[in-house]
């Protein structure tokens, strides 16, 4: 996916960054150059003094990278709430023509799934800044494994179902709150036969239960081939992960759905990079 000498673009399609974040990006740029000989180009729309860059400018910055033949991958380093403002402003025909990977997490779930739906292009659920923030180096290992070695994805966790997923699968999804922002729009992905991946930063058990109820009412569980549930940070911090496990077991029983519960994907720094929108080999290892 990447090799020495490649050039990548960094954008912020969700909430804009402020000058206090510039040091992190400079450190990341230096690290990628020294470690992998990767050249980094920053979009001019990343930083603002206050407020947020208008959606049209954020979308234009993203499309500029897609139109640049020297850019081999686009990493979004933002998060927040505003990424869906850019969806109707993107040129999906040009995105399909370049077919280079778009990488982001959290609110960038909306773009990851939109390009899968509208351009038939895959992306990666991952925040590249995590390779600088994770003391365990798990995120760095995942970055190297996927982007340079292109090996299969290994996740550790627990089955919440009798049924199990094996072999290859195509994943969709990402952050559950942001994924549901696509409901009722032309950007919601095709779910039939896919494995739905969900994680969350915020939300107690009541809100999370409501999210899963909405998916159920959308008949998503009737159509997908399986469910991979990552870290739900607020539930973990409130020691309520067991309640989520019970909810997943109920869904598994009602729909005879394979459900794998893993702490390896989420907003925590030690998070695994996972491709969305293309068939990959999954190795799901039970603890």
Kindly describe this structure.
- By secondary structure, the chain is an alpha/beta fold.
- It folds into two domains: 7-148, Rossmann fold; 158-280, Glucose Oxidase, domain 1 (3-Layer(bba) Sandwich), CATH 3.50.30.
- It has helices spanning 22-36, 55-66, 92-98, 109-118, 130-133, 138-149, 176-180, 205-217, 233-237, 241-255; strands at residues 7-11, 39-42, 71-76, 102-104, 123-125, 153-159, 168-175, 195-200, 226-232, 259-261, 274-276, 279-286.
- It has a six-stranded mixed beta sheet, sandwiched between helices.
- The longest helix has 15 residues, at 22-36.
- It is globular, with a radius of gyration of 18 Å.
Distance separating the two termini: 30 Å
Biggest pleated-sheet summary: 6 strands, mixed
Tell me the fraction of residues in β-strands, as a range: 15-25%
CATH architecture annotation of the largest domain: 3-Layer(aba) Sandwich
> What class do helices, strands and sheet pairing give?
alpha/beta
**How are the strands ordered across the major sheet?**
2-1-3-4-5-11
User: How many distinct domains?
Assistant: 2
Helix content: 25-40%
GO molecular function: carboxypeptidase activity; serine-type peptidase activity
Pfam families: Peptidase_S66 (PF02016), Peptidase_S66C (PF17676)
Domain LD-carboxypeptidase N-terminal: 8-122
Family: Belongs to the peptidase S66 family.
Notable features of this structure?
2 domains; alpha/beta; Rossmann fold; six-stranded mixed beta barrel; six-stranded mixed beta sheet; globular; 12 strands; S66_fam; 287 residues; Glucose Oxidase, domain 1
